[in-house]
Amino acid sequence: MSAQPSTEASSSSSGLVGDEPDARLLTEAVTRLRRALRSSIRTDYPWETLPMAQVELLQVLGEHSPARVSDLAARRRLAPSTVSGLIGQMINSGLVARDVDSADRRASVVTLTDAGREKLAAWTTAHERRIDAALAALDEGARTAITNALPALFQLAEHLGEPADDNAEGH
After folding, report:
1. pLDDT tens, 34-44?
2. Which of 78, 99, 128, 162 has a CA-to-CA distance to 2 between 20 and 30 Å?
3. 87 with 98: CB under 8 angstroms?
4. Residue 90 CB coordination number (10 Å)
5. Which run of H or of E encompasses 110?
6. 108, β-bridge pairs
7. 157-171 residue pLDDT tens
8. Residues in a beta bridge with 163
9. How much is the pTM?
10. 21: which residues sit within 8 A by CB, 6+ positions away?
11. Is 81 helix (H, G, I), strand (E, B) or coil?
12. HSE on the CB side for 102, CA within 13 Å?
């Protein structure tokens, strides 16, 4: 059972920017990677039930803490009410705490608790362990290709994080 896309889809790609088959194949690859990571983490943490939305908020707070709910919502591109609900659940689980914003006493900020930091570190370690094992199973050429693609993938993620340009649709 091959996990690679069909050669028909691959061969139709010219590699030009905006080439639909390239976008489709990259979307498929990213989707498969996310699905594989989500399911494989259960191997290391079969008891783990933390929803991915909460993991992503822990990751943002790991980099930007303390943060206001509105800032978290903007970073994750979610509605503030959605983030507020997730934060409420995470407070009840002891992963985050809500405090008064020292810059504006009328506002509140969210910070990671020690339990939240530990959960995030364990989650990250488990993912890194799974990816390391998968990379080790690849041949040297595939590992090199992935390593060489990382800067471009980070740039792509940055561009995807920017507002869409309505004029770009008619290219």
Report:
1. 888 877 777 66
2. 128
3. yes
4. 26
5. strand 104-112
6. 100
7. 888 876 544 444 444
8. none
9. 0.70
10. 9, 10, 12, 13
11. helix
12. 3
